[in-house]
Amino acid sequence: MYNSSAADRAANTEAGSRVFVYEVVGIRQNEETDKMDPEIRQSGSVFIRVPYSRMNQEMQRIARLGGKIVNIHPADVDQPNGHITSSENKGSNSAVTAKSEQNNSSASVENEVAPQSSEKEGKSMTQAKPKADKHKDVPVNIYRPNAPYLGQCVSNEELVGNGGIGTVRHLIFDISGGDLRYLEGQSIGIIPPGTDKNGKPEKLRLYSIASTRHGDRVDDKTVSLCVRQLEYKHPETGETIYGVCSTHLCNLEVGTEVKITGPVGKEMLLPEDPNANVIMFATGTGIAPFRAYLWRMFKKNEQEANPDYKFNGLAWLVFGIPTSPNILYKEELEEIQQQYPDNFRLTYAISREQKNPEGGRMYIQDRVAEHAKELWQLIQKDNTHTYICGLKGMEGGIDEALSAAAAEDGVNWMEYQKTMKKAGRWHVETY
After folding, report:
1. pLDDT confidence of 49, banded at 50, 70, 90?
2. Is 431 a catalytic residue?
3. What is the DSSP string of 15-54?
4. 395 domain-assigned
5. Is residue 170 part of a domain?
6. Tell me: the pLDDT tens digits for 79-132?
7. pTM attached to this predicted model
8. Residue 346 sits in the same domain as residue 422
9. DSSP letter at 229?
10. Catalytic residue among 143, 207, 232, 387
11. Catalytic site residue 429?
């Protein structure tokens, strides 16, 4: 257990004079006790005093021990009187019924989130449940699994550069022969061919759309996806397992027909206000909906196709990837940054190349912690919308970093986040 008196001594410097109290639940004793049968019960709520200079390091230690930080407040603020708000209940997340293989790679392949957030095939994409259907005119389920649209692959290009990890493809499908319409932030389903292990037809997988409503060619005739091939080791045999649908898509030849359903989703839609601020936290192929946002905001041909929409706010993308060659859409993102420096900010967290202040790998939560004060100030504006898309494991780190910034203003982050959700300003799609 962390020694609070040692923490206070470490805080007696100008840089680390502030001390915070972490309320933690679910912390275990050590990795060996997890293997015991019967397993040792995890702890209840504990309080740990942490100097500001050690906050990131302590967050990572708690995560390694299986703990979850549910509250952070300055040491001079009274501790809560027993009521615990679990971060597992932050928002009523409802699982999308279809399975998604989008970026469900193991942490060893795509580790722009801390290692404890390893994902396996079969995890569902989840979205924060919308509080009210204010988007009643949004197209939904135009094509269903029992009557999918047959689109044709017209392009399949590799996005990972030389020396990068894994394979990620940008695919474009022709939808000109049907009535498939969609908006930025929605998803479509793909039904792979063949049958599953039970001999039944394969179920659809959901993928976030990576193109604007007009498509990459701005002719309303295509839809695009950003797909990573799922690859992981079988825990017992050590055999390499490849995702069924992601492998099918990544190996798709131009001209091949694909069964498409949807679109679905209203949680990740962009605000209609062109003056809104848009904060985006992405890992890996979680960049897909944000590519659609940014192309709509800044691409010249999109601006010409949308004369009634001119983005005037600030868009800030914090993008977590394992290596530089894995920066998806790198040239286009950096071109937008150069052309619109007052309206677009781009921040990378390259885990295998950059170091956090403690000398460990630079994950997305470390970048959020680094810019927490500025992000917190921006988030408090009524016209700021925050979006999270990618591996589910990054949510906790983002909450922890923003909790510390909010606590300095005497604000409970988890409570404030609830008000943002009610106002429709906090958007989550993780898997």
Report:
1. confident
2. yes
3. TT--EEEEEEES--S-HHHHTSSSPPPPP--EEEEEEGGG
4. yes
5. yes
6. 333 322 223 233 333 233 333 444 443 333 444 565 543 333 333 454 445 445
7. 0.74
8. yes
9. P
10. 207
11. yes
> Could you give the number of structural domains in the chain?
3
Find the catalytic residue in 226, 245, 250, 389. 389
Band of pLDDT at residue 59, cut at 50, 70 and 90: confident
Reported as a single tens digit per residue, the pLDDT across 150-179 is 999 999 999 999 999 999 999 999 999 999
pLDDT at 392: 86
What does the mean pLDDT of the chain come to? 80
Closest by CA position to 249, among listed 262, 258, 261? 258
What values do phi and psi take at 20, rounded to 5?
-120, 155
Alpha carbon separation from 344 to 33, 62, 234, 333 (Å, rounded): 47, 34, 41, 9
Q: Are 244 and 276 part of one and the same domain?
A: no
Q: Is the dihedral of CA 86, 87, 92, 94 positive or negative?
A: negative
Residue type, 324: S
Strand-pairing partners, residue 321, are 350
pLDDT at 103: 40
The domain boundary residue, chosen from 200, 234, 264? 264
Listed residue (244, 172, 250) closest to 214, CA to CA: 172
> Is 208 one of the catalytic residues?
yes
Reply yes or no on whether 94 is catalytic: no
> Does residue 121 sit within a domain?
no
Q: Are 428 and 281 in contact (CB under 8 A)?
A: no
Which residue bears the tokens 């049958």? 195
Classify 265 in phi/psi space as left (phi over 0), alpha (psi -120 to 50) or beta.
left
